[in-house]
Design goal:
Elements: E1 7-11, H1 24-36, E2 41-44, H2 56-73, E3 76-80, H3 86-95, E4 102-108, H4 117-130, E5 135-139, H5 141-144, H6 150-157, E6 162-167, H7 174-182, E7 203-206, H8 212-218, E8 222-224, H9 232-244, H10 247-264, H11 271-279, H12 297-304
Parallel strand pairs: 1-2, 1-8, 2-3, 3-4, 4-5, 5-6, 6-7, 7-8
Helix pairs in contact: 1-2, 3-4, 6-7, 8-10, 9-10, 11-12
Amino acid sequence: MEPSLRGLFVPLITPFTEDGDLASGALEKLAHAVIDAGAAGLVALGTTGEPATLSAAERHAVLDVAARVCRERGAALIAGAGSNDTAGSARELRDLAAWPQVSAALTVVPYYTRPSEEGVVAHFTRLALHSPVPLIVYNIPYRTGRVLSAQTLLRLSAVPGIAGVKHAAGAVDQDTVLMMAGLPMAGLPMAGPAATVPSGGFAVLAGDDAFASPLLALGAAGGILASAHLRTGEFAELIAAWHAGDAGRARALGHRLAPLSAALFAEPSPAVIKGVLHAQGLIPSPAVRLPLLAADQDSVRAALALC
């Protein structure tokens, strides 16, 4: 059974203590807070959670916390798993079976090695065949070095076991528009009487926060939005407004939230987000792990002014 991937999913930061250890209590409180504010679910160990710098024990602890919160709250849990190694990614995905609350895995397009688009399709087809949970393809070419055409994205949408895509192309470009145009449609109301939302068991999730509103206008099912650590309720309302066909309300919300997203990404994520959450007293320190650096205080103050 395919997971429900409609609505707002918050890719949780991993808070650290002043000594640099995992702050599990702060993570749990943050998870509850975003669900209270309207998030449909959580993403654990996404890029925002700095998983590359966490030990295996810390990654397991993060999943334990997120799974417990989602079980208690009846919320969806997506877990980040996978790399540019197909065999290694398959092992990571198999390990997710230890957390039955995980309903889907966010799995990045192979980075650095820059496989062909045929190689990307083969990679995900192999992973989907054996994964204990459906996959969400993480399409983020400015991190991976691999641009995917609309044709390839549509091929991936037809692979059994692939439930959706986190689309972070850095723009609403031609391939984005053609992908949305090529997906099956469910006939759900959007901005006009003839408009529809893509369906067919494949969900497009906005992954570039500043472009979330226009992608939702094209029919995205929801978003995985790091900016939604702040003003969570308004991001959830943005998604709901586009789904309800209230274009005026949705457009106004999108315009209001875009400057916040720009401010929160003024430095490499999640540095500014952590700086703001710490300034608000929600996490014990603004620390990130090298090679990231803590955000400059000017960046934090600029983002705080928009919260």
